[in-house]
Design brief:
Elements lengths: L1 E10 L2 E11 L4 E5 L6 H9 L6 E6 L2 E2 L5 H6 L2 E4 L11 H6 L15 H5 L17 H13 L5 E5 L7 H17 L3 E5 L3 H7 L2 E6 L2 E6 L6 H7 L3
Parallel strand pairs: 3-8, 3-9, 6-7, 7-8
Antiparallel strand pairs: 1-2, 1-4, 4-5, 9-10
Family: Belongs to the ABC transporter superfamily.
Keywords: Amino-acid transport, ATP-binding, Nucleotide-binding, Transport
Organism: Paenibacillus phyllosphaerae
Length: 232
């Protein structure tokens, strides 16, 4: 479904990612792990097209998207929940969710899919509140619902549990499990919490110094691997 081949990307003169290759199959939850600063967010931005690849390729459903704009990638079915949420603080909750329809994948304008909101039932009760007035956990739910409004075939989730209360973390875990159980949407999840990724993931990649240092299934993610690549 998603194939990243020998990707190189960075900022200015700095090269952050080198020869990164990974794949996500339909319906799969693939987890991207690594210590702070190894390039997880850079990889997410490169897949979404927010950051241009210097070398290598990004393909989705057999189509090369390497030189395509982020909007084109969204129209092809990729949803993105960025690190830090990036909701619009002056817009209402309803208006923020509506922005998820801008990918133009066939939904009627201003009609939010029930499936996007059903997973976060608290949001409709807040439709008239400004996004900037919500708590961090509520903003994360809003960013997630905004991405789901486009009815994506694939979700990129960048640190969805960062800085939010445990109850919301559990809600997000439940949503990911629900999406996984439906089998209709693949997920690439960048997350620091080892316990969290183990509870939802099918396959795992570990980034170290901008490169894929390890990959494997849950049974192979043992203490030696954790100690070598994840322990601070």
């Amino acid at each position: 479904m998603l194939a990243v081949q020998q990707l190189e990307a960075g900022y200015g003169e700095s090269v952050i990612l080198r020869n990164v290759t990974l794949a996500v199959k339909p319906g799969q939850v693939v987890c991207l792990m690594g210590r702070n600063g190894v390039g997880k967010t850079t990889l997410m931005k490169s897949i979404m097209g927010v950051l241009k690849a210097r070398r290598g390729s990004v393909s989705y459903k057999g189509t090369d998207l390497t030189r395509r704009a982020p909007g084109e990638r969204a129209k092809r079915g990729i949803g993105y929940v960025p690190q830090g949420r990036e909701i619009f603080p002056q817009l209402t909750v309803f208006e923020n969710v509506l922005l998820g329809l801008e990918s133009g994948r066939g939904q009627k304008k201003r009609v939010i899919p029930e499936s996007a909101i059903a997973k976060f039932p608290v949001l409709p009760t807040m439709y008239h509140r400004r996004g900037g007035d919500l708590s961090g956990g509520q903003q994360q739910q809003l960013a997630f619902a905004r991405a789901l409004a486009s009815m994506p075939d694939m979700l990129l989730l960048d640190e969805p549990c960062e800085g939010i209360q445990p109850s919301i973390v559990e809600d997000i875990r439940d949503v990911i499990r629900s999406i996984k159980a439906d089998g209709q949407t693949a997920i690439l999840l960048a997350e620091q919490s080892l316990e969290f990724v183990k509870s939802v993931g099918d396959y795992f990649y570990i980034l170290d110094k901008g490169q894929i240092a390890w990959e494997g299934g849950l049974e192979a993610l043992d203490d030696d691997v954790i100690r070598q690549y994840l322990t601070v």
